[in-house]
Write a structure and sequence with these properties.
The structure holds 2 protein chains of 2 kinds. By secondary structure, chain A is mainly α. Helices cover about 70% and strands about 5% of the residues of chain A. Chain A has 9 helices and 2 strands; from the N terminus they run αααβααααβαα. Chain A has a two-stranded antiparallel ribbon with strand order 1-2. In chain A, helix 3 packs antiparallel against helix 9 and helix 5 runs antiparallel to helix 6. The longest helix of chain A is centred in the last third of the chain and has 27 residues. Chain A is globular. In chain B, about 65% of the residues lie in helices and about 0% in strands. Chain B has 10 helices and no strands. Classes of the chains: A mainly alpha, B mainly alpha.
Chain lengths: ~190, ~200
């Protein structure tokens, strides 16, 4: 049976929702184990005292990237059937900036705020509540944001497609950047400990 | 079972480890005992998350997310008090159950429920389950909680604009080399570093 299994009809709605729960549990497990349920650790990234966020995120991205690349190359994963979030240049750039400010201010992101809250942290709970209000505000004020929100759509497009280079070349480049990045992160943390 | 390691406290910790021993340690000397178990190597945790994400692609043909679950929650909340509004106003309607997006929004809600459970389970087994507030040494609890709420609200706006957050855009879209997702990651990190000086007193 080819992957994605759901698209190939391997199981139905209920199975999909059970997988969601199961995958979520493992995701939350690793987030907490890595210390990402602790706002101090997350914020430390932006004061260069704790590079955990960078290490965890980039390791995750590279792992999945390599997995996707090789599985599709071997014909075991039908990549076009995997949902690729569409690109909207301006709102994603702007949204990123806004999100980043909120991130260093709150010290947690949406996923990690749930982990933090579930482990008893009151600040985690406040981030969750804040997020709900922020989403609510966006929805209620949507006419204000609509123009920017819908601007510069590019559809689903990948970096290799945009640059006209092979997927594998970009994978290679990112792995190289990751290795350099991890080395730098270790040096930064060592300097902090010294 | 290994003995729990803790930072700072001079309390005697009963051998055996686990949450019970941690609780006893706190009671004995009254001081705060921090992590009972060291955190996992971040690279290992990252690979673990990467495999989970890969599993989502292979099994479901879609990635993970987080902010979408918040959108669903808000839509459900509004729907319970103003069903017509939730059904017709676009940002809500997109997350209402009977739309084409329906199955997708339920999926994210269950995933986030799982994240919450997984996080609590991990913390419980590591002896890290305790009520508290994570913050820097120079800031009051109230100020920290205010920043937490404000930061959350701002992230809510940012995630809506960008159609995702660190889970849905940075991890999922990033692993698929989506242009917009990488723009989001770079912009978010750059902005966080740029804004960090404003919040020094909160964290350092």
């Amino acid at each position: 049976m080819n992957a994605p299994l759901y698209e190939a009809g391997a199981f139905g709605e209920t199975g999909a929702l059970l997988f969601a729960l199961g995958l979520g549990v493992v995701f939350g497990w690793f987030l907490e184990r890595g210390g990402l349920g602790n706002a101090n650790k997350l914020a430390g990234q932006f004061y260069l005292t704790d590079m955990t966020v960078f290490k965890v995120m980039f390791s995750a991205i590279v792992t999945t990237l390599l997995g996707v690349y090789w599985l599709s190359k071997l014909g075991w994963l039908d990549l076009p059937l995997v949902f690729l979030p569409p690109t909207y240049l301006v709102p994603q750039l702007l949204g990123g900036v806004v999100f980043g400010i909120g991130f260093v201010m709150g010290g947690l992101c949406p996923g990690t705020s749930c982990v933090s809250a579930s482990t008893g942290k009151v600040d985690g709970l406040l981030v969750v509540l804040g997020m709900l209000c922020g989403v609510f505000a966006f929805n209620e004020l949507f006419p204000l944001f609509e123009g920017v929100y819908r601007a510069t759509p590019m559809g689903s497009v990948t970096i290799p497609e945009l640059l006209g280079v092979p997927f594998g070349a970009v994978v290679f480049a990112i792995v190289a950047i990751a290795i350099a990045g991890f080395r730098a992160a270790e040096r930064i943390e060592a300097r902090g400990r010294a | 079972m290994s003995r729990p390691r803790r930072e700072g406290a001079a309390a005697a910790v009963p051998a055996g480890g686990g949450a019970a021993a941690l609780a006893a340690a706190r009671a004995v000397d009254g001081s705060r005992v921090r992590a009972a178990r060291a955190y996992m190597n971040p690279y290992v945790a990252g690979v673990g998350i990467g495999l989970v994400l890969l599993g989502a692609f292979v099994i479901m043909g879609r990635g993970l997310g987080a902010s979408g679950a918040f959108s669903s929650a808000v839509a459900a909340g509004v729907s319970s008090v103003a069903p017509e509004r939730a059904r017709t106003l676009e940002p809500y309607a997109a997350y209402m159950g009977d739309e084409r997006r329906g199955p997708l929004s339920d999926w994210l809600v269950l995933e986030i429920l799982g994240v919450t459970i997984g996080g609590a389970l991990s913390a419980w087994l590591a002896g890290r389950l305790r009520r508290g507030i994570d913050k820097g040494p120079r800031i009051t609890d109230r100020a920290r909680l205010t920043y937490a709420f404000g930061g959350g609200a701002i992230m809510g706006l940012g995630a809506k604009l960008a159609r995702g957050c660190t889970s849905g855009q940075a991890l999922t879209g990033g692993a698929l080399l989506s242009v917009g997702s990488w723009l989001f990651i770079l912009a978010a990190f750059a902005a966080a570093y740029a804004a960090a000086p404003l919040f020094r007193k909160e964290w350092t």
